[in-house]
Amino acid sequence: MKASRWRMKLFTGNANPCLAKEIASYLEIPVGDATVSHFSDGEINVAIDESVRGVDVFVVQPTSSPGNENLMELLIMIDAFRRASASRINAVIPYYGYARQDRKSRARDPITAKLVANLIVEAGAQRVVAVDLHATQIQGFFDIPVDHLPGVPTIAEYLKRKGLSNDAVILSPDVGGVTRARDLAAKLTAPLAIIDKRRPAPNVSEVMNVIGDVDGKSVIIIDDIIDTAGTICTAAEVMMDKGAKDVYACCTHPVFSGPAMERLEKAPIKEVIVTNTIPIKKEQLLPKVKILSVAPLVGEAILRIHEDLSVSKLFEA
Q1: Angle CA 178–181–185, to nearest 5
Q2: Inter-residue long-range contacts of 207-211, CB under 8 Å, 24+ positions, other chains counted
């Protein structure tokens, strides 16, 4: 069953057009005719060059780096579709920027993830599709429906094909990621290990204790984001010190900022498995980096939303 083409259209900003094309190919529809450019003073100019009146519109735009630029593109595109009388506007956000600012850690901290949600709703979005939100409670920041797609199934399928479901241990690099690690462990029927760590400053982590047996095992570290790679690389070194046979690092969102690539290249990690929610630059394509596509996952979710079918059925095992 494919989408009723004339009732549904998919558009993209400049954040990740390659992923949008893959999703459109899965749906067997073309990417909508729209241009996102800049005026001479740097302001964003959006031109929608085909009718969307009465159409179910899906806008694919992760708010990855440059986050502010990509967020503004998304907001302006949503506003354009609203003013063009689209029947429904669905913001497809494979990577939700500012997600790590989801609570007040100190006095006078902003909750920027909530602010971004308010902006998206106010712009005119009527539904959000997101992949692997950093904190699941972000769904509650929106006053519209949010379909939250986990990245673990895509990663689990790849690991099974590699034969890593045998003699493997799934490692959560912190207590906050245990639910994600437990999900992957269940799909691979593998035991679970946890690192209890302290973070004295942003992007600085200190390993405290390892809970679980990793001696002689293939350790698979799973996280939602690899940013500066400090956490993942430190965890890999600790695993090798604890007698691990080899280490694999997996994440949904390859942010890869600052010293990430240098750290990953030097780290005792056999393979870094990521998805294409965020486009990876050519200089970041290390031989050990494997990119998996979330296009089938997102495409199937879009199709189910368009046809008013259950999205959760995708993940029932």
Answers
A1: 130
A2: 207/234, 207/235, 207/238, 210/238, 210/239, 210/242
pTM of structure: 0.93
Strands 289-292 and 8-12: unpaired
Q: What share of the chain is helix, strand, coil (3-state, %, to 5)?
A: 35, 30, 35
Amino acid 107: pLDDT: 94
pLDDT at 198: 67
Residue 83 near residue 53 (C-beta atoms within 8 A):
no
- Name residues of the chain where pLDDT drops below 70: 1-6, 198-208, 317
Strands (E) in 231-270, as ranges, are 246-254
Question: Residue 217's closest CA among 165, 276, 283?
Answer: 165
Query: Of these residues, 9, 187, 197, 217, which one is catalytic?
Result: 197
The rounded distance, in Å, linking the Cα atoms of 226 and 79 is 32
How far from each other are the two terminal CA atoms of the chain, in whole angstroms?
21
DSSP strand pairing (168-172 vs 218-226): parallel
| CA nearest to 124, candidates 70, 59, 67 | 59
Q: pLDDT tens, 98-114?
A: 999 999 989 999 999 99
104 is catalytic: no
Alpha carbons 186 and 183: distance in angstroms, whole number: 5
Residue 198's H or E segment, with its range, is: strand 192-201
| 275 Cα distance to chain centroid | 8
